[in-house]
Each structure stands twice: as C-alpha cells, then as structure tokens.
Amino acid sequence: MYFVYILKSLKDSSYYTGFTTDVEARLKKHNSGLVEYTSTRRPFELVWYCCFEDKLKALHFEKYLKSGSGFALARKRLV
Length: 79
Description:
This protein is α+β, with helices and mostly antiparallel strands. The protein has one domain (2-78): GIY-YIG endonuclease. It contains three helices and three strands; from the N terminus they run E-E-H-E-H-H. The chain has helices at 23-32, 55-65, 68-78; strands at residues 2-9, 15-20, 44-52. A hairpin with a 5-residue loop joins strand 1 (2-9) and strand 2. The radius of gyration is 12 Å and the shape is globular. The model has no long low-confidence stretch (mean pLDDT 96).
C-alpha cells in the first residue's frame, strides 16, 4: 500500500504533503529531524492521509495536492 499524507507543524502551523509506504515511520522521521526539508518546523502531527494500491496513482495525487488547485482543495476540504 502507498500513502499520501498531510502533516501540520505544531511550531508554525504550516503544512507538509508527502508520500510513503509507512505513515507511522515517516512521521517519526519528520519529528526526529531526519527529513532535512522539515527539520526546522518540527514537531508535526498527522492531520490527513489516504491509501492507494497503485504507486503511480499515489504519486500523481501527491503531485496534484502540491499544485495550485490541489493545494486549495487540501486546505479547504482535507485539513
């Protein structure tokens, strides 16, 4: 299974969208500072995730959520 997830920073209320095969392990990596992009905005909480059987569909949905209209959808409907 493949997951697209949205994290919220408890430090500055910013959001991060990502892709993984293990949501719990990925959240631990973000919160421990092992992900360079998010290391200065930790701690994070998981606010939303979605499961996909197809890796390409998950990657395309992650890319969509990072686009303008996907970003608006995520902030309005998902978090």
